[in-house]
């Protein structure tokens, strides 16, 4: 089982279905991945205060973060913009929000010329 949720066979089936569906849609021009440590992510989850998230063990969030990092290390379906989100809070800071929007706009400008 992967993280206690899926067996390797179930995950392989999921991936097969995903890639079959992706053959029938246009590729996105850009994938944005906000990269964050598990400690920072769980602090934000705690601050957000959603009851159903509070009961999830930290080990789950750590494993999920590791899976995301591994996935995006080899992601090649479209252009990828990885943003270090550890010191950004675009929900509360207009400056951070503008910074992220400018990063995305700049990357999209590069993608359009390719």
In whole angstroms, the N-to-C terminal distance is: 41 Å
Q: Determine the mean pLDDT.
A: 90
- Strand line-up of the largest beta sheet: 1-2
H and E string: HEHHHEH
Which parts are unreliable, with pLDDT below 50 for 5 consecutive residues or more? none
CATH architecture: 3-Layer(aba) Sandwich
What is the CATH H-level superfamily? P-loop containing nucleotide triphosphate hydrolases
CATH top-level class: Alpha Beta
Structural class: mainly alpha
Overall tally of structural domains:
1
What do we call the CATH topology? Rossmann fold
Topology, number of strands: 2
Q: Helical stretch count?
A: 5
- Radius of gyration (Å): 17 Å
What's the structural blueprint in terms of helices and strands?
Elements lengths: L7 H15 L7 E6 L2 H11 L2 H4 L3 H16 L5 E6 L9 H20 L1
Parallel strand pairs: 1-2
Please describe what this structure looks like:
It is a single chain. By secondary structure, the chain is mainly alpha-helical. It has a single domain (8-113), classed as 3-Layer(aba) Sandwich (Rossmann fold). It is 58% helix and 11% strand. The chain is built from five helices and two strands; from the N terminus they run αβαααβα. A two-stranded parallel sheet has the order 1-2. The longest helix has 20 residues, at 94-113. The radius of gyration is 17 Å and the shape is flat.
């Amino acid at each position: 089982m992967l993280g206690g949720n899926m067996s390797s066979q179930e995950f392989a089936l999921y991936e097969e279905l995903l890639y079959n569906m992706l053959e029938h849609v246009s590729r996105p021009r850009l994938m944005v991945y906000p990269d964050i440590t598990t400690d920072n992510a769980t602090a934000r989850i705690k601050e957000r205060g959603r009851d159903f998230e509070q009961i999830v063990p930290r080990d789950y969030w750590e494993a999920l973060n590791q899976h995301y990092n591994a996935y995006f290390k080899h992601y090649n379906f479209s252009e990828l913009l990885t943003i270090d989100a550890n010191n950004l809070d675009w929900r509360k800071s207009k400056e951070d929000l503008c910074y992220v929007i400018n990063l995305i706009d700049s990357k999209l400008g590069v993608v359009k010329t390719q």
